[in-house]
């Protein structure tokens, strides 16, 4: 899918996809949203070390980049698996302002995760491995168990097939006991699907521009 770079309200980049009329992140602030939803209410809420993370929607690599930066602060080892059917083109990646906006000293890491080969595990450094899987989430069958899931697919009204109970049931079965799923969407259909899959769902205050988000626990 073709996309174009935009600047969100916090000054960080996101991508807009005309085909779907959809943005990769909140227009109120891409980095603000990712920090609030996935780092503060996901990664920092789960104290397991080493930690195994599954991300639904690699996209721009922002969540992986922020996870690594946060993990360095507390010396956590991260095994990161991420699913993406439509990888962002390399020339677009090189124009994203995340390294400069967040931590330019770690720009090599940001490019290394994008340059890592698809469909195999890559060791970026001694504290972070990444396995990027180029596949439709509907067809993805996990072969391992995770402690934390970042559910960052396009909005339910854009890709409803990614938010139904069958998807969440599959993910639930591959979460460790007390495992966590966190997502920016707090729509009723999402809460219902998560609960039907077996999750205990909690509504939390959302990032700037959004009223609520969800955190679900196995």
Characterise the protein shown here.
With 218 residues, this protein is of the alpha/beta class. It has one domain: Vaccinia Virus protein VP39 (Rossmann fold), CATH 3.40.50. 28% of the residues lie in helices and 28% in strands. The protein contains 7 helices and 11 strands. The strands form 2 sheets. It has an 8-stranded mixed sheet with strand order 6-7-5-4-8-9-11-10, with helices on both faces. The protein has a 3-stranded antiparallel sheet with strand order 1-2-3, with no helix packed on it. Helix 1 packs across helix 2 (62-74). The N and C termini lie far apart (34 Å). The model has no long low-confidence stretch (mean pLDDT 97).
Strand content: 25-35%
Approximate helicity band: 25-40%
Mass-distribution shape: globular
Low-pLDDT residue intervals, each spanning 5 or more residues:
none
Largest sheet: 8 strands, mixed
Return the CATH class.
Alpha Beta
Instruction: Give the strand line-up of the largest sheet.
Output: 6-7-5-4-8-9-11-10
Q: Supply the number of helical segments.
A: 7
Gyration radius, to the nearest Å? 16 Å
Give the structural class.
Answer: alpha/beta
Total strands: the figure is 11
Distance between the termini: 34 Å
Mean pLDDT level? 97
């Amino acid at each position: 899918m073709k996309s174009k770079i935009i600047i969100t309200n916090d000054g960080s980049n996101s991508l807009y996809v005309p085909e779907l009329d959809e943005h990769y992140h909140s227009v109120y602030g891409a980095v603000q949203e990712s920090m609030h939803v996935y780092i503060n209410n996901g990664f920092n809420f789960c104290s397991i070390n080493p930690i195994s993370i599954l991300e639904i929607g690699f996209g721009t690599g922002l969540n992986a980049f922020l996870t690594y930066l946060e993990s360095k602060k507390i010396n956590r080892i991260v095994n990161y698996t991420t699913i993406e059917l439509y990888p962002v083109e390399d020339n677009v990646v090189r124009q994203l302002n995340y390294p400069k906006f967040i931590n330019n000293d770690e720009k090599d890491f940001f490019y290394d995760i994008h340059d890592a080969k698809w469909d195999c595990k890559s060791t970026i450094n001694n504290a972070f491995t990444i396995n990027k899987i180029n596949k439709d989430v509907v067809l993805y069958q996990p072969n391992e168990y995770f402690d934390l899931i970042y559910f960052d697919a396009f909005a339910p009204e854009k890709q409803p097939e990614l938010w139904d109970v069958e998807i969440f049931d599959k993910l639930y079965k591959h979460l460790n006991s007390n495992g966590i799923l966190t997502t920016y969407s707090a729509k009723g259909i999402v809460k219902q699907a998560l609960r039907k899959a077996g999750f205990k769902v909690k509504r939390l205050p959302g990032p700037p521009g959004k009223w609520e988000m969800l955190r679900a626990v196995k």
